[in-house]
User: Which sequence fits this backbone?
């Protein structure tokens, strides 16, 4: 086979829920673009089970990303591990291997600065940040018919987030392993805490650290990226409120400005027993409205709905657009284009930096509302 058209040899690090339900099935579906060459996971049992399920021989299964990079000749790696991905992405880029990176890119801006330097030394784009909503056909359709920035008046994002178990019950995933050796896991957890120290200060309360890492960067970062893609970066964060703490992690409301001064609100609610995940972005402008309605993130080929409302003569025009093309699949195709042809991703290291900056602005506003102070990078923005 012509090397230019040959599938990319890729390795997948992290074999949990998103790997099993989304990325590994899609990598197999896109046999024309990818060869699943190797897998890695800290859990020996999960590594064995998922490796067997997806046909990866024992000799190409590894207990760490580092081992996989050292032993395999790879065109790219897909990072699906938990926590910050800054150190893992840096390890891959320094090894000359391109990175598809799930959120969050990093907990601290310092980690991203190191990635930017490493990518510059490689002399080519090396990282695609996995924000699938930017690739969604409905998002692209809205972007193609956006009003002038000065005509946008208000944007609202609402996320209703049931428990992860209920979201993924349909997928019949492997149960959590629980057999990661302590001497392997503890240094990684300690490294994540040091990155949170850099972002928020060593004295930041545990509650705020969890909200920043798990909710703001672990979930809302998708919406921060979506807003940036459609309207430009969130410019200011004026206020943030946190309540319903008894339903850990509870509810967040964030308000600020975006684009040419439009007001923006983000509302995120963990509702463990809510019937289904629901996410809605609504925009009002001087001539009408637009609404994106997203469904369960891990349910492949479930279409996002775009509803457009506009003035039509003396009346009202309403249009609905839906398409079953899978956003995660388009995202993987974009990674192929980055590696094979050097096509920069819509969201790379620079955009990831901007999104984490917004996350830190939210953390700073949350600290004010909780009556506490933070140091670190967030205090300097």
Assistant:
């Amino acid at each position: 086979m012509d090397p230019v058209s040959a599938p990319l040899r890729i390795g997948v690090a992290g074999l949990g829920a998103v790997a099993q339900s989304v990325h590994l099935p899609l990598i197999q579906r896109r046999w024309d673009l990818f060869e699943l060459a190797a897998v890695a996971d800290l859990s020996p049992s999960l590594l064995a089970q998922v490796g067997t399920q997806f046909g990866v021989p024992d000799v190409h299964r590894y207990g760490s990303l580092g081992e996989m990079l050292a032993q395999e000749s790879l065109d790219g790696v897909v990072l699906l591990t938990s926590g910050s991905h800054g150190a893992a992405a840096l390890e891959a880029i320094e090894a000359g291997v391109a990175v598809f990176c799930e959120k969050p890119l990093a907990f601290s801006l310092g980690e991203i600065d190191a990635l930017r330097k490493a990518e510059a030394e490689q002399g080519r784009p090396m990282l695609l940040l996995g924000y699938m909503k930017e690739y969604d056909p409905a998002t692209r359709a809205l972007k193609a018919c956006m009003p002038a920035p000065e005509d946008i008046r208000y944007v609202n994002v609402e996320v209703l987030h049931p428990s992860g178990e209920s979201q993924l019950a349909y997928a019949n995933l492997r149960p959590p392993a629980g057999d990661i050796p302590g001497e392997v896991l503890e240094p990684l957890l300690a490294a994540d805490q040091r990155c949170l120290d850099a972002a928020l200060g060593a004295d930041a309360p545990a509650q705020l650290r969890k909200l920043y890492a798990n909710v703001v960067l672990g979930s809302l970062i998708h919406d921060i990226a979506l807003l940036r893609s459609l309207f430009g970066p969130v410019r200011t964060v004026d206020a943030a409120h946190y309540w319903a703490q008894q339903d850990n992690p509870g509810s967040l409301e964030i308000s600020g400005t975006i684009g040419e001064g439009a007001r923006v609100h983000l509302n995120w609610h963990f509702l463990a027993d809510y019937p289904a995940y629901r996410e809605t972005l609504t925009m009002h402008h001087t001539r009408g409205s637009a609404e994106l309605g997203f469904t369960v993130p891990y349910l492949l080929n479930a279409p996002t709905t775009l509803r457009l409302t506009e003035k039509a003569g003396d009346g009202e025009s309403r249009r609905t657009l839906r398409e079953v093309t899978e956003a995660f699949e388009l995202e993987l195709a974009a990674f192929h284009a980055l590696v094979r042809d050097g096509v920069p991703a819509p969201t790379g290291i620079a955009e990831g930096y901007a999104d984490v900056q917004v996350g830190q602005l939210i953390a700073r506003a949350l600290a004010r509302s909780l009556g506490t102070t933070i140091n670190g990078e967030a205090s300097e923005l």
Remarks:
- The chain is about 40% helix and 25% strand.
- The domain at 8-132+332-346 is CATH 3.40.50.720 (Rossmann fold).
- The radius of gyration is 21 Å.
- Residues 40 and 62 are 5 Å apart (CA to CA).
